[in-house]
């Protein structure tokens, strides 16, 4: 997991099934600004619990994607970068390494 990616990289993730783009903003923010194509929304407040406790079936039902394995490529997004950095730190703490 790299600490930073470019906007161009994120734009290219729309159809990349090998990378999971997780927007950690609150749903109310998404209503105002829209979503990033190809992303799923897991608010930062629930991210750690979702990654740790959700079964693959539950994850698929909620997000229409497989629950990421510990070696999956994850990219986190938010408004200014602070929450995505916190999300990255939480994922690393759980053992996600790419």
UniProtKB/TrEMBL annotation:
Q: Where are the transmembrane segments?
A: none
What superkingdom heads the lineage?
Eukaryota
Enumerate the spans annotated as Rhodanese domain.
15-96
The UniProt entry, under PROSITE patterns, shows: RHODANESE_3
Recorded hits in Pfam families, A to Z, give: Rhodanese
PANTHER family the UniProt entry points to: THIOSULFATE SULFURTRANSFERASE RDL2, MITOCHONDRIAL-RELATED, THIOSULFATE SULFURTRANSFERASE_RHODANESE-LIKE DOMAIN-CONTAINING PROTEIN 3
Question: Any idea what this protein is called?
Answer: Rhodanese domain-containing protein
Q: Which organism is it from?
A: Tenebrio molitor
